[in-house]
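Internal tracking record. Fields below are filled automatically when a chain is submitted to the structure queue. Please do not edit lines marked as system-generated. If the sequence contains nonstandard residues, flag them in the REMARKS field before resubmitting.
Queue: standard
Priority: normal
Entity type: single polypeptide chain
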Amino acid sequence: MASKLRVKHLLIIIPLLALAGFIGYRVFQAVKAKSELQQAAAGQGGAGGRGGPGGGAGGRAQVVQTGAVTSGKISEKVTLTGSLKPKEQVDVNPKIQGRIIKVTVDTGQAVARGALLAEIEDDEIKQQVERSKAAIAVVDASISQREAELNNAKAELDRKRQLVEAGLLSRIELDSLETRVRVAQSQLELTRAQRRQSEAEQRELNIRQSHTRVYAPINGVIATRHLDIGAMASPGAPIVTVVSTTPMVIEALASERDIARIKRGAMVNVTVDSLPGQKFTGRVMRIAPLLDPQTRNGTVEIEIPNRGGALKGEMFARVELDLGSQRETALLPRDALVYRGEQPGVYAIESEKAKFLPVETGLTQEDKVEVVNGLKVGDVVITRGSNLVKEGDRVRVMDRQPGGQRGGQGGEPGGQQQQQAASSQQQAEQQQQQAAPPQQQAPQASPRGQRRGRE
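SYSTEM-GENERATED OUTPUT FOLLOWS
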């Protein structure tokens, strides 16, 4: 019985092992064929024949365009940068401490000078005002009493004086009445002074009560609302911030050389990075009389009208100021300028290879850059593609041909290159398809192998 089970197991295992070996063999053949196709395609692409992009030394040539250094006039301009700021900015602080019971404005709302912004609780001050009014009324009654006493003392003094003159009364009694009149007069003056003091206290309370209402100090826009209803206000904490956005101001730093040539009242062109395509016009309003002793830079303040309200505070702006003079100089296409770290330079072509040439640049005007040192008029440099090449790379200059085709030096039209690449790709795909069917037919052979094993 055991021998029959072993035979049965062998009849099942042997066909499975044969099927697994057959499938592995087919997979190995397919992978090998695919690898050979990839190597063949790589060999065709790197050969660099007559119409291909490669050449010499087996390396691929970088396709570029060139331009020449020309002579032209350049306007002396100064480019300054800075952040936009409102001309006026005020943090509105209350003058007294108290709880806020009303805020009439919010962020972004326009306000006029003198407009009510907030109210602070004033119940306590109102009670103090009422107490002051009552104190003044008491003083008024006291003044009336003192006046009556003084009048009575004066009348009695007049009668006694007549009696003294007639010899019916002694001089001592008259002196006593005169002292009494002076005392009444002094008491009346004291009471009147107390009234003036009470009136001053009342005026002070009225001023404190007026401080419970906060008003806008300038015409502008609410930039920030710091406190809400129910918060405790104090003289050191602003309730809102009001800014005047017309005009806007740029405080730019100019070098010692440039600031000497900038004139007050000069017109400038302003561009803002966050508003592409829009240009604004401003005017130089103030120039700092002192330079920073460390950087030798001075502040130039420029005002820009902002009637539409498009300019916002802290936007980054670029200011271009024409100094009003021109000079003849060598001009380099801007596309040709590259940087090695902080060193500007260009790539020239020497023996069909790219060579880096350091240059010293000056002013920039539209698509041209002034060359101060390193190149001369007529020198040819790489323009388009300069940022893709490196020192020693093989390069091929691309020229435009009739019909929109492009070719290179020593090469064929670009259309033929594309056709050859397409035909190579099609051949590779056909070879992969021919190698793939055996991999798909392998599972179909497994039932046959199982049947043969069972038979």
